[in-house]
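ok trying this again, last paste got cut off
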Amino acid sequence: MTKTQSALQLARKAYEPKLPKTLRGAIEVVEAGVTEPVADKEELKKLFPHTYGLPILRFVEAQEKKDYPAINVGILLSGGPAPGGHNVISGLFDGLKKNNKDSRLFGFILGPGGLVNHEYKELTAEMIDEYRNTGGFDIIGTGRTKLEKEEQFEKGLEIMRELNIKALVIVGGDDSNTNAAVLAEYYKAKDAGIQVIGCPKTIDGDLKNEVVETSFGFDTACKIYSEIIGNIQRDCSSACKYWHFIKLMGRSASHIALECALQTQPNICIISEEVAARNMTLDDVVTYIASVVAERAAKGLNFGTVLIPEGLIEFIPAMKKLIAELNELLADSTEQQTTKSSEQRNWVISKLSPENASIFASLPESVANQLTLDRDPHGNVCVSRIETEVLLSSMVGTKLAQWKAEGKYVGKFATQHHFLGYEGRCGFPSNYDADYCYSLGYAAAQLIVTGKSGYMASVRNTVAPADEWIAGGAPLSMMLNMERRRGKNHPVIKKALVDLDGKPFKTFAAHRDKWARETAFIYPGPIQYFGPSELCDRPTITLQLEKAD
C-alpha cells in the first residue's frame, strides 16, 4: 500500500499550536510611544515620511469583541525556507477567519516573483489543513526576487487591485523585510489602500532586536544540527581516530554555530565575530585549532570536533582584502585564459600585491581553485561555496606536520568533513517554532484588521509559557539604517551579529577551554514533539541566556 504521509506527519496534524492568552479572545491595541531608528534618523525620515516614527503596538485582552469587515489578504514567502512557515500561514488564515469568516487569503507562488508575475492561488481551509505543523514552504513555494523597482511595485498593485487584496504579508529575512518597509511607504505615499506587514524569518538567527526576540526557524534548525553534531560526537568518541570539521550555515553571523556549541559542547567552535574583533589572521585560526589538537594528542586523544560558521572567511580581515583584490583582478582581466590550475595559480600570484600573494600561495590548491575558478555572474568570488572546513583541516594538517618535524607534536591527525546546511531548513518545526509561527501569523492578522501598515508582527517573552507571550507589532522603520551597497547608500534592516558582550557568547567563552581539553560532549538527540513541556517546548539556550535576569 502506498503511503502519502508519514506517521509523524499525521500525528502533527492533530497538534494545536499554543497561542498567547491575549490573542485568544477579544483584542485591543495599545500604543507604546513614538519610535526612531538607532542611526541615520534624518535621512530615513526623508525616505519614509509616511511610516517613520510609528509606535510599538501591544495586544491586550479587551472587554468586548469588535466586528471587522471581511478582507482579502495576500501572502508571499521570500528567501530560503525555514521551519514554521506553514504555521505563519495557518495562523494568519485562522486569525482572519476569527475576525470575519468571509475574509480570504491568497498565496503568491514562488515568492515575490509571483506577486510581480501575477501567479497566485487562493488558500482554502482544506488546503491549509494539509500543511499545518509541517516543515518547508511548499504550500506556495518561495523565491529570491527582490522588490526594489517602482515597476515591480506597480505590477504588484495591479494584481492586488484585481483580487481586491487590501493587505500583503511578506515573510522573510532582513532583506525581505527591508523590501516590506519600502513597499509599505510606497503604497502609503500613493494612497493605494494596501497595507504591508512583515514576519521575521531566517534560520541564521540574524534578524532580531529589542522588539523581535528571534527569527522563526532558528530554534528548529539548531536542534536538527545539534542532533547531527551529537551523533557525530558519539561516533567520534567511539572510534577515537578522527577530527570532524563541521561547517554550519550562517554566512553573515555565527548564531547557529554558537547555539550548537552551547547544545553539544564540541572541542572547538570558531565564532566569526570574535575573529574579526581580534583582527585574527587565517594562520591565527589554524594555529589555535592545531594547538588544541596537539594538546589532546599529548593525552592520547587523537579525535575531536570543530564547529565552523559558513561565513568565517569573510570575517578574516586579510582574507577580505584578498577576495576584494581577486574580484577586481579576475573581473577586469582578459589576459588570463588558461584552464590549468597550476598555471592559473602562478598567474594570479604574479598579479597580486605581495601581501595577498603570500596568503594566496599558502592556500590548499582546491581552495585556491575555488577562489579563482568559481565566480558568480558579476565575476565575484562565490564565498559561500568555499569549503572552509577543508581549508582549515588541510592547513591544520600542514602545521601539525611541521610541528612533528620540530618535535613539538606527537600524534595522529585524520579528518572527516561535514557541511550542515539544507538539512535544517525544512524539518518539522519544533513545538517552539510551531507555536511561535502560529502566533506570528495570528498577530499579523490582528495588525491587518486594525488597519496597520509598515509593521513587523512581533511575539515576545517566549521563554515563558505561551500563555504569557506578548504579541503586537514593531515598526519596520525603527529597524532601518543606511548601508553602502553597489556604490550607493540604501536603507536596510541591519543584520544582528553575535554580541561578544552578551551572555550566550560569554557563557561559551567561559567553558570552551575545558571543552577543548576534555571530552565533554553532549548528545541532544532528536527534536521531541510529544511529552513533558520541559522536553518539548524549551527554547534555544541562546534565547534563555539572553532573557536571563
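PB: full thing came through this time. The chain has a mean pLDDT of 94.
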